[in-house]
Amino acid sequence: MAAPLAPRRGAGAAGRRCLVLLSPLLLVLLRARPAGALVEGLYCGTRDCYEVLGVSRSAGKAEIARAYRQLARRYHPDRYRPEPGDEGPGRTPQSAEEAFLLVATAYETLKDEETRKDYDYMLDHPEEYYSHYYHYYSRRLAPKVDVRVVILVSVCAISVFQFFSWWNSYNKAISYLATVPKYRIQATEIAKQQGLLKKAKEKGRNRKSKEEIRDEEENIIKNIIKSKIDIKGGYQKPQICDLLLFQIILAPFHLCSYIVWYCRWIYNFNIKGKEYGEEERLYIIRKSMKMSKSQFDSLEDHQKETFLKRELWIKENYEVYKQEQEEELKKKLANDPRWKRYRRWMKNEGPGRLTFVDD
């Protein structure tokens, strides 16, 4: 009986060594791209930009510009005239136009230092295929204007619009208050006490017409209202620090201030268990009512005192107050004639109902 064939250890070891040696080679072959430095679609395509302009890689900007001007005059489609011994790329108007575009592309590539540096790097390192594509298109598609300049100009424009819009709203509020009898009478009394109205009616060489006197008195009354009344909310006097530009500049300061304030709040009231002060109580009430700071500041002082007396910073008390306000609103709506008409219309007609009227 024949003995079974024994495995050849030497052959197996040699095979494993071959696989170990071939693995890196196979990996390189799989990842390899075309080794040529000149790639179609990048810069001058398969043509060398230096050869297109007829200059060496050590040529300076002046030499490159001079070569470009000469070739541009030679291959310009409107001025091109083929010469008998012309062996260049442009022998017909169509080929001359292609040559002109190629010369322009070569000049655009070599005149910029950063683009020329990327192009030289591509010639020296043809194996970095994807890197060349990235650098080429990142520069080609990059915006011509600095994005930071665009953002800065936009923010400044928005801030200017904000300022004039707020100032217009403030002037409208002052003009309205000047028509309210309550404030107009008080402002007129103050103007008479200070003798401002007499100055407006002075006679002499600089005698004014009735319209000028009326306009001047109106401005005096408005100025007194501005100085005596503190308007809050959406019609308050515009402040420079409220503009978007200054809000962005002061954002780090506000953020740090908020972090410090929040840490103090946690330490004083959550850890040490201190009682809330008046400012803290109003802050909790404002947050419960979901009102912004400007909205809450526009409330009358007696309303804030009522909030404090009813201890609305306590959640249970606020829930009772909220329910009372909802009930009061329902009663007002029930007694409102307009609301009654609306409910009657919804009951009889309603949205989407078809009715036919017989004449």
TrEMBL record:
Membrane topology type: Multi-pass membrane protein
Tree of life domain: Eukaryota
SUPFAM superfamilies named among the record's database cross-references: Chaperone J-domain
Listed Pfam families: DnaJ
InterPro entries: DnaJ_domain, DNAJC25-like, J_dom_sf
Family recorded in the similarity comment: Belongs to the DNAJC25 family.
Name of this chain's protein: DnaJ homolog subfamily C member 25
